[in-house]
UniProtKB/TrEMBL annotation:
SUPFAM superfamilies recorded: EF-hand
Name of the protein this chain belongs to: Sentan
Organism (species): Spheniscus mendiculus
Single GO term (MF): transition metal ion binding
Occurrences of domain EF-hand (ranges): 50-85
Amino acid sequence: ALGKGSDLEKTFATAALVYNNSADPEGKLSKAETKNLLQTQFQGFIQGQENKPKYQEIISALDEESENKIDFEDFMILLVSLTLMSDLLQEIKNVKTTK
């Protein structure tokens, strides 16, 4: 859909596509499905974060009240939260690109 879009547009389109491919017909994910999706599709950002209190808080929330479902907006908030706390983000910040 965004073949000629910017890198940032393609990134968000990909996130939406991955979410939509996993979501139920109502466009939502169970908390267990959300946790599995994060662990399989976002592992580079969450790897090594297991001992951080914020990470534990996020994962614990996904383990509780499993009947509640996650919509796309909440999923994106989770992605941003996990990205901001990730050690990988610091590594990315340290990379110098040349054009």
